[in-house]
């Protein structure tokens, strides 16, 4: 009796071909034509325009501003919003775009996320019609860059206790305080700033050039180097009362914006994980040690199998998240589950991939360490891993660890 291959079919029936190594569950076949078109268009943009320059920008600590008009031309800015010059695409389309952008670099995806989900979304959801008409079309065209001011130097996760204040003074508000770790802050033309008022937490639109409003960029970063990260400073900054977002009060406003951004992160980190996995797989097939490719070694295969499995799980989480959002049945806790898992596993994937490349893995010739460093920030922002753990814990136990 001959020994059968461990992969032989037990019933002798025809075996279906295995999908691509980065799509083992054949999710590509579940996407609509429009979804695949969006994904492939953004993937082509990243391959042709982002990848040739992103390593140099990361090393120099600069953001490739020259790409903004191209991203706007592709309809990526506010792409999940309807009207006002926005593309009005589905949540899954938006997620797939985030996935491909972050396969290039977290800084590129962060720019698009902040512009669309943290700056344009609150205007779209909570702004007056006049505010929408004035700001959303030029933001969609990339002519006005936005940022989102919530986090403060001494106030991170406990954002409800922010110290930035806005005091009513006639037909104006006087804004005082500091916001920190603000993506796009140094290049933003418009800041969406959350502040405490006598009426609770409110959102304000603050234009660059307003007296009392200044920004300073944060340097010497080891993560998200190809992204602008800044402090926003407000010192007796007088803004017109009509610059307040009229249709939201309290923490529901900023938290709903964060959920929009977290949705994009849950998808985007799938792209970063895939990039690391594919680089490690290709390397393992060509790198030889002991007169054979290292892909033949059991420990290397084990690492690749773990990466492939976690990639499939992250892809499935992100896809179901998008389907739920498009159906209008998405709950914020489901976003926390996906954000927490997908960032965590993308970071683990980057570390395992780096180990397969050995010393080569620490260079910018390969994307892995760049992704690994970026993911350290993604692990923390828009809700730390710990905070999302406690959000999920509260949901399943009914007990709050926050009070």
Automatic annotation (TrEMBL):
<feature type="domain" description="Acyl-CoA dehydrogenase/oxidase N-terminal">
    <location>
        <begin position="32"/>
        <end position="143"/>
    </location>
</feature>
<feature type="domain" description="Acyl-CoA dehydrogenase/oxidase C-terminal">
    <location>
        <begin position="249"/>
        <end position="396"/>
    </location>
</feature>
<dbReference type="InterPro" id="IPR009075">
    <property type="entry name" value="AcylCo_DH/oxidase_C"/>
</dbReference>
<keyword id="KW-0560">Oxidoreductase</keyword>
<dbReference type="GO" id="GO:0050660">
    <property type="term" value="F:flavin adenine dinucleotide binding"/>
</dbReference>
<dbReference type="GO" id="GO:0033539">
    <property type="term" value="P:fatty acid beta-oxidation using acyl-CoA dehydrogenase"/>
</dbReference>
<dbReference type="GO" id="GO:0046949">
    <property type="term" value="P:fatty-acyl-CoA biosynthetic process"/>
</dbReference>
<dbReference type="InterPro" id="IPR013786">
    <property type="entry name" value="AcylCoA_DH/ox_N"/>
</dbReference>
<dbReference type="Pfam" id="PF00441">
    <property type="entry name" value="Acyl-CoA_dh_1"/>
</dbReference>
<protein>
    <submittedName>
        <fullName>Glutaryl-CoA dehydrogenase</fullName>
    </submittedName>
</protein>
<dbReference type="InterPro" id="IPR052033">
    <property type="entry name" value="Glutaryl-CoA_DH_mitochondrial"/>
</dbReference>
<dbReference type="InterPro" id="IPR036250">
    <property type="entry name" value="AcylCo_DH-like_C"/>
</dbReference>
<dbReference type="Pfam" id="PF02771">
    <property type="entry name" value="Acyl-CoA_dh_N"/>
</dbReference>
<dbReference type="GO" id="GO:0000062">
    <property type="term" value="F:fatty-acyl-CoA binding"/>
</dbReference>
<keyword id="KW-0274">FAD</keyword>
<dbReference type="GO" id="GO:0004361">
    <property type="term" value="F:glutaryl-CoA dehydrogenase activity"/>
</dbReference>
<keyword id="KW-0809">Transit peptide</keyword>
<feature type="domain" description="Acyl-CoA oxidase/dehydrogenase middle">
    <location>
        <begin position="147"/>
        <end position="237"/>
    </location>
</feature>
<dbReference type="InterPro" id="IPR037069">
    <property type="entry name" value="AcylCoA_DH/ox_N_sf"/>
</dbReference>
<dbReference type="Pfam" id="PF02770">
    <property type="entry name" value="Acyl-CoA_dh_M"/>
</dbReference>
<dbReference type="InterPro" id="IPR006091">
    <property type="entry name" value="Acyl-CoA_Oxase/DH_mid-dom"/>
</dbReference>
<keyword id="KW-0285">Flavoprotein</keyword>
<comment type="similarity">
    <text>Belongs to the acyl-CoA dehydrogenase family.</text>
</comment>
<dbReference type="InterPro" id="IPR046373">
    <property type="entry name" value="Acyl-CoA_Oxase/DH_mid-dom_sf"/>
</dbReference>
<dbReference type="InterPro" id="IPR009100">
    <property type="entry name" value="AcylCoA_DH/oxidase_NM_dom_sf"/>
</dbReference>
